[in-house]
Amino acid sequence: MSHKQAVGDTVAPERALKTALRHAHGGRAQLIEGVIEPLRLSWAHETTADRLRHQLGTRAADLHCIIGSGDLDLPGSPNWYIPDLAVVPAAVAKGAGALLPDQTLLVVEVTSEADAHTDRIAKRRRYAEYGAPLYLLVDRQQRTLTLFAEPGRLGYTRITGPLPYGTPLRVPDPFGTDLNTGDL
């Protein structure tokens, strides 16, 4: 079964669950392996995401992309994610509801106490499985960054890190830029 198709009798329940999720908790909830998880983000968490957004902003604009935290659907699975940041071609994002991970250029997850394990394990596996080309894990609890690249069904095949905060991190093409991680 491909990710873009589901077996006939599983499509309706999956669609119903994901439709209900979009209306739960003010539309700010995720479905992680079938469990609804409302987003509860601290200002420290948001500060880290904002600093990364600013660093990536100029290059994203050069690539005709936007940086946001819109919905990512993982069809054929019990998952619906809201990443902390995703860099997406503006033409793809325009008028779109949920996107697929393979429509992004980069997905960023910033851990919090409540979801660190999910970001480290489940999302890393699923982002690779669904073709997100780059996945940046910013682990606030461990004060490290890990960049995952070259996705496949068994996971990412190229991993940079974990690098301690303060170590510059090279984000490969199409970004070709170094992130300053000292002020995260």
What report would you give on this structure?
This protein has 184 residues and is α+β, with helices and mostly antiparallel strands. It has a single domain, classed as tt1808, chain A (Alpha-Beta Complex). The strands form 4 sheets. The chain has a 6-stranded mixed sheet, sandwiched between helices. It is globular and about 45 Å long. It starts with 7 loop residues before the first helix and ends in a 5-residue tail after the last strand.
Q: pLDDT under 50 segments (min length 5)?
A: 1-8
CATH class: Alpha Beta
Order of helices and strands: HEEHEEEEHEHEEEEE
CATH topology (level 3) name: tt1808, chain A
Characterize the quaternary organization of these chains.
single chain
**Side-by-side strand order of the widest sheet:** 3-6-7-8-9-10
Give me the number of helical elements: 4
Largest sheet: 6 strands, mixed
Report the average pLDDT across residues.
88
Approximate strand percentage: 25-35%
| Distance separating the two termini | 40 Å
User: How helix-rich are the residues, as a percent range?
Assistant: 25-40%
How many beta strands in the DSSP annotation? Answer: 12
Please give the radius of gyration in angstroms: 16 Å
Give a summary of the structure in a few sentences.
With 184 residues, the protein is an alpha+beta fold.
Give the key terms.
single chain; 184 residues; alpha+beta; tt1808, chain A; six-stranded mixed beta sheet; two-stranded antiparallel ribbon; 4 helices; 12 strands; globular
